[in-house]
TrEMBL record:
Coiled coil: none annotated. It holds the Pfam family FAA_hydrolase. InterPro entries: FAH (IPR051121), Fumarylacetoacetase-like_C (IPR011234), Fumarylacetoacetase_C_sf (IPR036663). This is Fumarylacetoacetate hydrolase family protein. It comes from the Bacteria. The keyword Lipid metabolism does not apply. Keywords: Hydrolase, Metal-binding. Belongs to the FAH family. One of its GO terms (molecular function) is hydrolase activity.
Amino acid sequence: MRIANLSGRLVIVSGDAAFDVALLSAGRFSSNPQAVFDRWAEFVEWGKEADLAAGAGGVIDSADLESPAPLPRQIFAIGLNYHDHASEVGLVASEVPVVFTKFASSIAGPLADIPHPGGDLDWEVELVVVMGAEARNVTPDDAWNYVAGLTVGQDISERVTQHAGVTPQFSLGKSFAAFSPMGPWIVTPDEFPDPDDLALSTVVNGETLQDGRTSDMVASVSMLIAALSKILVLLPGDVIFTGTPAGVGLGMKPPRYLTVGDELVTRIEGIGEMRNRIVGAV
């Protein structure tokens, strides 16, 4: 199943059509895209039997797509989770996940413009996990049972802010306006032949700059969920940015960064793509 946020309303996506969940369920489920995660198991069971043919589906206008997880209570982001990325920035990947947050005000949709705040603006394609159940002390073997689905994300980073000060300011440097685009929709794990092995890429102005596979993560999705849930409670609708492979601008020689007018295309196999344009500061 695929679910999306279409103009602020929860929809099921089938082919190129969107079906409004609140209308299709006769009000059983809210139109609020974030609210569905608190009732995820019930929603999935209903979705298996839902008669989409009986609903008034409409062709999706991609311009109306917003972040499919617009208001998570917690946002986790993982640093140095691919060996090749850690190497390109002169660091060593750690078996203990490097965790920071991206603040919720930075969330944007799959076609949102990204204002350039000045400094060194970098790209980081990331698989984003959306939680579908409260998780506490979860084992790796059981972790996927707590996942609602997967979506595409960009961990946009302003490197000057990130590295200012005595210690790195990861959370601030990665939380300017529209620095956390997600979309175009959430895909449930059962839709993938292997949800632990997906191709992901970043293309800037037609040039492929990142090209990796999620199977190369140091800590897999299940390992991340297990590690986090030993310390805190993961809540329904929380999102986890799982890290980026090699190919970021910071790691190039000389470094290369985004400028106003650039088009950033982010793709993940089996999910889809986002297209974000870099614009002048608001």
